[in-house]
Amino acid sequence: MPAPTAARSARQRSNSEWAIETLIRMLGVSTIGIVAIIFLFLLTEGVPAFFQVPLDNLFGSRWYPTSDLFGALPLLLGSLLVTLVAMLIAFPLGVMTAVFVREVAPNWARELLKPMIEVLAGIPSVVLGFFGMILLAPVVRTSLGAPTGLTALTGALVLAYMALPTIISVAEDALDAVPRSYRDAGLAMGATQWQTIWRVVVPAARSGILMALMLGMGRAIGETMAVMMVTGNAARMPLGLDAILRPVRTMTATIAAEMGEVASGSTHYHVLFGVALILFVLVMAITLASASVMFRRRERGGLR
Amino acid sequence: MNRHLTQKLGFALLGVVSLLVVAPILLVVAAIVVQGAPALTWAFLTEMPREGMKAGGILPAIVGTLLLTLGTGLVAIPMGVGAAIYLAEYARDNALTRLIRLAIVNLASVPSVVYGLFGVGIFVLLLKLGTSIVAGSLTLAIMTLPVIISTSEEALRAVPMEFRTVSASLGGTNWQGIRRIVLPQALPGIITGVILGLLRSAGETAPILFTVAAFYLPVLPRSPMDQTMALPYHLYVISTQVPGMPLDIQFGTALVLLIIVLSLNLVATLIRSYFRRKREW
Asked: What is the ipTM of this complex?
């Protein structure tokens, strides 16, 4: 017959285990709560902006908060311009680097490249912004004849390099998921390795590569400090062919630059939260789209 | 023969492109090391800033960043590892779990400046913590959470299933198996993930802009409710907000931040590769 004390300690143990397991369960579920709270908070603080400011003002082209002009269009277009140009640079570079690292590079080159890319991922945004301001901007000014070196292009260049580690690592994973038999089949048909890469391996990995693009884009559009330091921050409509060589201002930079100066509860305050809400929804849409690609890929057994 | 030439040219192109990706990284690091090194004296690291930050050292910014990183870790490590244990060991493959995963992916993609806004609203104003180290650490912790969760979950999942079955077959409960067998085996991976998450938070500026960072505060913080200077914000301030700032102080500050972040990065990499070689499964 077991001693009563042993039975009690077993029950106690299961009680404390129950407590720990409940705590762990709550921590897991709390992540949903955090996202919900962030979203609700942005909604309650941001939505009043749409009631306090006439819509033609809010979606106008003039952002002068001191004269109650809250045209968010230049900010939205500024963010989109900088992000798109950054992706035009970073996506081809990133995919080609991923192909090189995964398919072509000899071992020593791979061992050299991968840590360097990790270093890039680790450099703080503000350090890259500092570098862009001090050393890149003068180059942009003198070589391209822009009146100031702080332009949309400078921002896009810095952003491109900030998005590269994300693009490279996600694209590399996608290439990694393509079974070896695909490559063997390509080579067995008499194709060169080069042909196999571009006509078999990359197409097979296309959804993962698309995900790399989207995640890189999400990273770029939300980037704040580096962009604020190198784009010149002029809230003007980035239209016309030379827009890329002129200063722009992004949504993120606007929030960071102005939030410190507004009175809590003022119209300007609510508009800044409205901008953050737009930003949040935009990034969430990009993320959901790439997550759906990810989940679908999982259902198809790792490929496509 | 022609297509073999194409292949050769193609591979060369890929190599050149990779070089194009890597060269600017070297350039950034080299430029900051070369131009920042002369400023890096003992006094620079251990003195208060003087004369509107144009002279003296950056001690309060260094201490501030270390304190914020510590605070972030105190909150984010238990929460993140706990959530990771749930996902790796308890969660079934159902709608709730998918929703949690979606939430984590989402948290990872929220722009840092939005975390900053959220921190002001919830921690500074609603919970009345004021602009303080506590408010800043909590904000950074929420931002760091997804990194710690996903790396820890990966480390837990890498522990072979047999370890759990053997523990159960010896009469261990679910939690005993996790606590005594799975967690210790996954620890190196978890530590690596934690370091990677914390070094990211140490370099962040936007989340601390309105929650804790002080523009110019040449004293060390005395309580968690104090404001503090912090390295990333300090670099932003002296490179954009103060005209006539000596360049060597700017580069010196950038270098100190870079050294902290990259050495943590190196530690994480070393831990990972050391234990990967050592482990027996």
From this structure: 0.92
